[in-house]
Structure formats: structure tokens, C-alpha cells
């Protein structure tokens, strides 16, 4: 258990629910470990599939590239002093700077 749990959490999941690979530590699990506070604001970001019939054409390359850069399928990053909107913006800039592709489609929602 951490003594000073984080107030904010940013959760990136590059797995896809339709193929069964969507696993890992979700924010509510990390609360039980003491990594983030129970009242912490969490945001989950996943690739958006605009056309389900073309999932492998548009979403799979994005997922594969994210996996290469992030070296895994699920990450939880937390910062105590930055609001959720700022974390989203900072992570977006960081991802844009390392990926050779643009984030054409993504969605964020409250978890």
C-alpha cells in the first residue's frame, strides 16, 4: 500500500474488447492496492473504431504501434498535482511526439 495515494489517474488501454485481449489492472483494482485514492478522478482512453467492419484496417495498426511504444497493453499513470484535463493534454502531446502516426480517432470517458 502506498502512503500517499494519487489524486488523479490516467489509464491507457490498447487492448480491444472484441478479441478478448482487454485485460489488466483497471483503476478500481489500483484503488484496492492503495495506488490511487478511492475518490480519484479516472479517465479511460481507448482507440475508437468508427466502422466495426473495418476494425483491422484502422484500429489494429494504431493498437500495434501503441503497443510497440508503450511496451505493453495496459498502463496506469498517475499524478497528484495535475487535473485530469491537463493529464490528458500532456499525454496526448507525449504520444504525438513518439508515434509516427496521428491520433485520428480516440475516445475518453469517465470510468
Automatic annotation (TrEMBL):
<dbReference type="InterPro" id="IPR029035">
    <property type="entry name" value="DHS-like_NAD/FAD-binding_dom"/>
</dbReference>
<dbReference type="GO" id="GO:0034038">
    <property type="term" value="F:deoxyhypusine synthase activity"/>
</dbReference>
<keyword id="KW-0520">NAD</keyword>
<dbReference type="Pfam" id="PF01916">
    <property type="entry name" value="DS"/>
</dbReference>
<protein>
    <submittedName>
        <fullName>Deoxyhypusine synthase</fullName>
    </submittedName>
</protein>
<comment type="similarity">
    <text>Belongs to the deoxyhypusine synthase family.</text>
</comment>
<dbReference type="InterPro" id="IPR002773">
    <property type="entry name" value="Deoxyhypusine_synthase"/>
</dbReference>
<dbReference type="InterPro" id="IPR036982">
    <property type="entry name" value="Deoxyhypusine_synthase_sf"/>
</dbReference>
<dbReference type="GO" id="GO:0005737">
    <property type="term" value="C:cytoplasm"/>
</dbReference>
Amino acid at each position: 500500500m502506498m502512503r500517499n495515494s494519487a489524486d488523479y489517474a490516467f489509464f491507457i488501454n490498447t487492448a480491444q474488447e472484441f478479441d478478448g485481449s482487454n485485460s489488466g489492472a483497471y483503476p478500481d483494482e489500483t484503488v484496492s492496492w492503495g495506488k490511487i485514492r478511492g475518490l480519484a478522478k479516472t479517465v479511460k482512453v481507448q482507440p475508437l473504431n468508427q466502422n466495426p467492419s473495418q476494425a483491422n484496417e484502422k484500429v489494429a495498426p494504431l493498437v500495434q504501434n501503441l503497443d510497440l511504444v508503450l511496451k505493453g497493453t495496459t498502463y496506469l499513470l498517475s499524478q497528484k498535482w495535475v487535473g485530469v484535463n491537463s493529464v490528458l493534454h500532456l499525454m496526448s502531446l507525449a504520444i504525438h511526439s513518439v508515434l509516427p502516426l496521428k491520433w485520428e480517432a480516440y475516445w475518453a470517458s469517465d470510468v
